Design the sequence.
């Protein structure tokens, strides 16, 4: 069934609807990171300093969240292969309730680990007591043998210093390990070059012992009563197997080159570890709340097939842009985005901030991080000739940008244009873009007068022009 499943697809919409269209047992690995209040409008996710999670009635909010997630997790369990793996990423808000729900749906015996991700080393959270420094990832598997590739992390400097203290004639550091078995090994009690294993026997066969000897790996004792030891070279060791406490992957900082401005964005290294551990190249990875698309970028980079779903049109466009920019994929050829709002009627119904996000991204702009009190500027377009002013922030350009104003109304009027003119004057911009469904005659007259009066150009763009992709010349 998996061979006929369409992949490399981003679906825009409620994952419950899309999951019901998938066949049983068709997915190898599922990762989800649903925001706590998942049925909220996606009006304010863009540019928040942190998620706004203050609820007057915590219990009611948690109950609503579990009620929202339960049917979606039932569908996720249905599409998971018996050999598949399921990761649910959550924080303190409802983690214990989530665990109970997943035990009921996936089965208590299918629970493998709670992974604790230390995402920050400090947090000013004293009003609740101890600072909240970690997230949880609940790891479940299907009912048959699941894929698991052990992951490793480097040894600490202290471990290397204490355990790899010897150096051979080529300068390679090594440790020496006793070859006598700690447990009875009756079939490995042979004598080798006059040395007996004593006690329980050797840890290796005669053939392996001879190979180690030919390779110069054996260290022979000075007396027959001593122990044969084997050299373990540091440069051949994989490292420390990763356990269920992950302290080596920090959250994204404000200076990170990965950072997109999405408040719940997770580091690529986190998803790389999960996908490497619980899938193989060619397997199918599903993220049903994929936000800015870190899981699908990781899956693409690691040569997995993937399916992404998100309710937010803006998130879907951000994912598409990220696949184009980071993975050098061609939309329509290497991947597709389906079910985005394609009509004026659909766009009239989405929340105002979501509409702003759609319009700004459709123009190739960057959304203003300020959601309230944006002073008449919803986004900025940076011309292709702009160059970064500093590496620490890829969005800090030289002073060459054009403002964007968006109004989700039937006709933008003269007062709307007047406000945008004031913003352009304040920011000393020579050119700006205004998006609406239509413009009144007074608005268009004022745009013309503003140019004749101030020499500053406002480009009016209708939603229909954007949908019909008739804006290239106006954006030039």
Sequence:
């Amino acid at each position: 069934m998996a061979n006929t499943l369409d992949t490399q697809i981003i679906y825009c919409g409620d994952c419950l609807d899309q999951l019901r269209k998938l066949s049983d047992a068709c997915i190898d690995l599922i990762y989800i990171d649903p925001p706590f209040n998942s049925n909220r409008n996606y009006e304010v996710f863009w540019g928040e300093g942190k998620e706004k999670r203050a609820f007057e009635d915590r219990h009611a909010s948690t109950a609503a969240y579990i009620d929202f997630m339960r049917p979606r997790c039932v569908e996720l369990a249905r599409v998971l292969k018996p050999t598949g793996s399921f990761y649910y990423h959550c924080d303190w808000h409802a983690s214990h309730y989530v665990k109970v729900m997943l035990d009921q749906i996936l089965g208590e015996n299918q629970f493998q680990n709670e992974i604790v991700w230390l995402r920050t080393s400090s947090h000013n959270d004293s009003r609740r007591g101890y600072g909240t420094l970690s997230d949880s990832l609940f790891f479940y598997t299907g009912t048959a043998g699941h894929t698991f590739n052990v992951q490793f992390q480097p040894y600490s400097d202290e471990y290397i210093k204490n355990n790899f203290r010897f150096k051979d004639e080529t300068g390679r550091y090594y440790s020496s390990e006793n070859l006598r078995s700690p447990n009875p090994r009756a079939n490995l009690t042979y004598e080798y070059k006059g040395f007996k294993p004593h006690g329980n026997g050797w840890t290796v066969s005669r053939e392996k012992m001879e190979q180690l000897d030919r390779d110069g790996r054996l260290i022979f004792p000075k007396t027959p009563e001593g122990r044969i030891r084997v050299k373990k070279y540091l440069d051949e060791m994989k490292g420390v197997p990763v356990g269920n406490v992950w302290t080596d992957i920090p959250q994204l900082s404000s200076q990170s080159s990965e950072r997109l401005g999405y408040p719940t964005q997770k580091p690529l290294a986190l998803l790389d570890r999960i996908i490497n551990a619980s899938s193989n190249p060619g397997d199918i990875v599903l993220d049903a709340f994929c936000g800015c698309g870190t899981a699908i970028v990781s899956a693409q980079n690691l040569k997995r097939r993937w399916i992404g779903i998100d309710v937010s049109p803006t998130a879907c466009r951000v994912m598409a842009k990220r696949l184009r920019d980071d993975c050098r994929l061609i939309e329509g050829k290497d991947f597709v985005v389906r079910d985005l709002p394609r009509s004026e009627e659909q766009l009239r119904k989405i929340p105002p901030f979501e509409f702003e996000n759609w319009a700004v991204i459709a123009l190739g702009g960057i959304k203003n991080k300020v959601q309230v009190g944006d002073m008449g500027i919803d986004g900025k377009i940076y011309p292709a000739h702009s160059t970064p002013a500093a590496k620490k922030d890829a969005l800090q350009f030289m002073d060459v940008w054009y403002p964007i104003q968006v109004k989700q109304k039937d006709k933008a009027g003269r007062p709307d244009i007047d406000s945008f003119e004031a913003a352009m004057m304040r920011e000393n911009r020579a050119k700006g873009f205004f998006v609406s469904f239509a413009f009144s005659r007074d608005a268009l007259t004022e745009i013309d007068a503003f140019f004749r009066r101030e020499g500053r150009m406002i480009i009016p763009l209708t939603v229909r022009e954007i949908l019909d992709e008739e804006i290239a010349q106006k954006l030039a």
Q: What stands out?
A: The two ends are 47 Å apart (CA to CA). Residues 58-79 form the longest helix (22 residues). The chain has 14 helices and 20 strands. Residues 260 and 436 are 26 Å apart (CA to CA).
